[in-house]
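DM between two lab members

TW: hey, do you still have the ATP phosphoribosyltransferase entry open?
JB: yeah, one sec
JB: this one, 286 aa:
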Amino acid sequence: MISETHLRLGIPSKGRLSDLATELLTQAGLRFRRQNRGLFARVSGLSIDLIYLRTDDIPTLCAEGAIDMGITGSDLVEEAGADVDERMKFGVGRCRLAFCVPDDAPIKSAAELDGKRIATSFPHVTRKYLSKRDAAAHLVSLAGSVEAMIQLGVADAIVDLVETGSTLAANRLRILEEIGNYETVLIQNHHKRHGEIADRLVERLKGVVIARDYSLMEYNIPRAKMHLAEKVTPGFNSPTVNSLEDSDWCGIQVMVKRKDVVDTMDQLKAIGATAIFEMTLNNCRL
Ligand code: AMP
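TW: and the structure you got?
JB:
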């Protein structure tokens, strides 16, 4: 089934990243069908084979060359100590890895955890971080439910991923110190086999990520107010300015971060813009 002539792309077989990876690849124009939850799927019309793997195995398998590229979390790349190239960030799955202690614990820094018990799914990252601070702890290494371990009496602190912080709040825990910020990434083996197809995949996925992140805005503005409008919407590179029949006015087309669109509309309205529209982008190449 697997072919030497095809780039092997490892994607998560289950878990929070699995559906997202499928969605991103589909949006990037890849057509494939996974049969009966199998290990492989061939992409039609492109020399790519998808290999369905555990998200936390993808960094190691990519470093070892079993797969050429993979979609996984940068936290897992660091924990695996995988020597791979990070080709792009997807801007999703953002989280922090942090030392957390009970809300009322008097402790002030991670270095004070020297000699204490720490539960975590990230023993390597935790040990490395502590050793740089001349501290060493007894690490309780677990695959999940780390947030419950202080209550269960097996740990004094935990090192866990925090996204919204609601898991911490529910367990009456607070962040003591952050180790780092992580997100979903596309990684590549150093040997860069099938480099041309890999680069094409990266270009396509970058287009999808930008299109997911940005909207196209259009509005009309008096020419005399252009300098103000350019401050509100500087654009990705620079805005497109079109002439209107009324030469005192012009039409602007510009990329704006989706999360900023509503605020931007308010600001544009306030400086005299009219006919302000937001258009959703499906895909792009910049
Ligand atoms: P939250 O309650 O939103 O802070 O999420 C924290 C819980 O979700 C913890 O149990 C984490 O292990 C898990 N989590 C948060 N973000 C991620 C991520 N990007 N990848 C994997 N697990 C995560």
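TW: got it. The chain has three domains: 7-92+184-193, 95-182, 214-280. The radius of gyration is 24 Å.
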